[in-house]
Specification:
heterodimer, A: 472 residues, alpha+beta, OB fold (Dihydrolipoamide Acetyltransferase, E2P), Chloramphenicol Acetyltransferase, six-stranded mixed beta sheet, four-stranded antiparallel beta sheet, 12 helices, 21% strand, disordered N terminus, B: 571 residues, alpha/beta, 20 helices, 23 strands, 22% strand, 2-oxoacid_DH_actylTfrase (chain A), Dihydrolipoamide acetyltransferase component of pyruvate dehydrogenase complex (chain A), transit peptide (chain A)
Amino acid sequence: MANALQTSFLPSTSSLRRTPILGSKGKSQALQVKAKIREIFMPALSSTMTEGKIVSWMKSEGDKLSKGDSVVVVESDKADMDVESFHEGFLAAIMVEEGGVAPVGSAIALLAETEDEIAEAKAKSQSSSSSGHKAVEEQPKQIEVAAPDVPAAAPVAAPPAVSASKYVALGSAVHPASEGGKRIVASPYAKKLAKELKVDLGTVVGTGPNGRIVAKDVEAAASVGTTDAAEGTVAASPAKPAPVAPGIELGKVVPFTTMQGAVSRNMVESLSVPTFRVGYTITTNALDALYKKIKSKGVTMTALLAKATALALAQHPVVNSSCRDGNSFTYNSSINIAVAVAIDGGLITPVLQDADKVDIYTLSRKWKELVDKARAKQLQHHEYSTGTFTLSNLGMFGVDRFDAILPPGTGAIMAVGASQPTVVACKDGRIGMENQMQVNVTADHRVIYGADLAAFLQTLAKIVEDPKDLTF
Amino acid sequence: MHSICSQATTVPISNFASGSRSPALAFSKQVNLRFCGLRKEAFGFSGLTHSCSSRVPFSSRGYSKKISASAESNGTPPKSFDYDLIIIGAGVGGHGAALHAVEKGLKTAIIEGDVVGGTCVNRGCVPSKALLAVSGKMRELQSEHHMKALGLQVSAAGYDRQGVADHANNLASKIRNNLTNSMKSLGIDILTGVGTIVGPQKVKFGKVGLPDSIVTAKDIIIATGSVPFVPKGIEVDGKTVITSDHALKLESVPDWIAIVGSGYIGLEFSDVYTALGSEVTFIEALDQLMPGFDPEIGKLAQRVLINPRKIDYHTGVFATKITPAKDGKPVTIELVDAKTKEPKDTLEVDAALIATGRSPFTNGLGLENINVVTQRGFIPVDERMRVIDANGNLIPHLYCIGDANGKMMLAHAASAQGISVVEQVTGRDHVLNHLSIPAACFTHPEISMVGLTEPQAREKAEKEGFEVSVAKTSFKANTKALAENEGEGLAKLIYRPDNGEILGVHIFGLHAADLIHEASNAIALGTRIQDIKFAVHAHPTLSEVLDELFKSAKVKAAALNHAPVSEPVAV
């Protein structure tokens, strides 16, 4: 099953932004051939190799390459091998990131002959990997970062010298070696992390000895970016100016894209399942406090909710079951939490596998990876199709409650509203204030009954209200 | 920094033979027999092609004990000398020479001005192995991914710095005692004081403030070793700017340490420091890290030992000025471009380790008394370790071994050179084949090598007009390595396809330092690939990496005709 979800999740804005995603790819590739910009291809390292995985890039964008320099390490079906450059030039753009897989013969990076051509090459690689808005000049680094309002992550690979001088004012600049901000003093690991997490060191405030930037400073800076980015996927839609969306002709009939077609089929199919709903109000003070505490370690709210849900499901296997044929049902062996994410022109449900077993930090990293892949449209089939329980969160829009449609092939979906300060009557008879969030589960009544959901929700509320188990 | 420990710990040979015997007695017997058979072949074969005398003495070592006893009673040299042999310096080289000298029936004394054991035991390979053992275990325990893959769960691993430092110190003193006892029990006189050569066959020694004594000997071996080399402009304070001497005491674990030099010493310390939580910056004068290694091995090692760790580096730069931390200011390091000599960068770190190599310790030896001029501090010697004077003449009865001659600055090379000298003074000509001496770097995983690197082999081949081939095997295919979940690694064989000669072997991977000896022994004994490929390796063991390596070499058919057929062995 593909990218099915409830209709409420397709806000009108996203259907308005039905820009031609699919067309852009072929077009841009044709462009790359001319000029002195060469493509670096995934080599065939053995006769049986059909695709290769990028283990690591040994050069960064902007680096000068000599003939024979090792550029990238590729894992084939047999071994890891260094791939050397056959030409001189500058590594202009990396098109397949570390960990990514590319078929033999496909372009994995662009090589510019002169430094001046780097920008041109970048623009090209960008137009081939992201959908074609015209932001090229203003936001040259938009390749991975879809949400434009992520300050820390945006100027990623810009040469440090330039960005340093630009951002000095933000850093503490008290390190004696920084010569009043002319140089950035960061520890080796901080530098490595910054590259990995795409954080511009110029914007990071150092808290190490003498104001040195250390790893935790970079992590803190990155987690701000990450959480924004992770939840920003959804948030991005309203952030974009809806009024005069470009490229939309009112009154025109637009055919479904592939993704929209799949969603449509699934939504109709969902009508054949008898569903019902149970709602619950959960106090989130403790969860909010925990989130604040471990946010700096890259933990996102989405991961926390997924983890809590998974732990509750572990105690109520029937809620994690699925009925496909109407005659029998399956207790699923693993708890895979699918989380709905809005992306350009539709939505997709990346899956956090074994969310009950994976620790929260790994889960958060995994989530970030999935979101990045989803944005780059690189999710593998198993990464969005193996969910056993779905989570849909519209809380960040201020939605306080909603109702989700059950994706076919699964047993239940939970709609999560915003956590809001609420005046409550406390047990001691006084009036107090607590953060409360409403959740609403839609389930297949052929296998899951009211009492099952009620018990599940009670467990979930207990976990969220006393979240100490989430960090194990 | 090398594993000469093996030399030291196996010293009480007699204990070993009578006491601890491996439980698999039947097995070992069988293996021994077969090995003898193979060795015979090797000899027969090498006799045909090479007349290198270096192989024989090695094999005879095992049973020379009795011979020496009889030699002592008959053939003692003239009475006019106090000793047959005096060795200046009781490091690993001196120790190896002294033990062999006793075996050969020589009356031997060893002069030591500091502590027995020299650099290796006290400030080098031995304590560093203790630290590396700790770092290896820390790495394993900290690697969540690795543990998980094995199904293990370990809560946060931590360490106590003083405990680690004590372990290194205790190991050094234990080995030092072993060394001292092994010499005392054999009747070697240990003379305390700084030794100075006062004339031919004459040495004076004494402590500061005490009258000197003069002793004479028929032959003298200089084995004074080396000290850390500190380039000018670098101020060593022993606390924040340190050499390996200080680092091995592990008095602190800085948050950020710069290591100047990315050779063995620098690499091993980077392994230790990063495992204990430091971040490391390498400063290397050459354009590439790990310049001494085979380029391919270096590349892979960089990918495994440097890139994923908390290490960054500056290459092609000199550290021209290093100022220790004081008054709340960090250590400052000024970097200058190695080619243009332009200032390039300034680093501010918590500590700096100077690992730029070692310089010979030959001052105060009285070389002027015998007309010897050192070259950059090294004592010039010929291939038989005989000292050469300022006029280019050999000085009779004077030899120099180990770091002081600079031929190959490794503890076990010094020891081998010492044994070679003793062979010569006892009447058997001997030239040590330095290409058969293995070297190892004890990172995790380890790096080891013997013989030529690929570029060296290709250069030699070009000059001498033969063909060179390279074979490689990966640890990824080795059962034992995979069982340990340590499949990262490569073994590389450089050889002559026309006759099957092994030119060099380089290993990067789990226990590489222990694996190299099959190759180094083959080179020392002149064993060819077409013969060694039939040797059997226990399954599953890491040694099969080499087995597969030899089997994957393609030796031309012409050479194979020479291969002798193994003699059947009765069991």
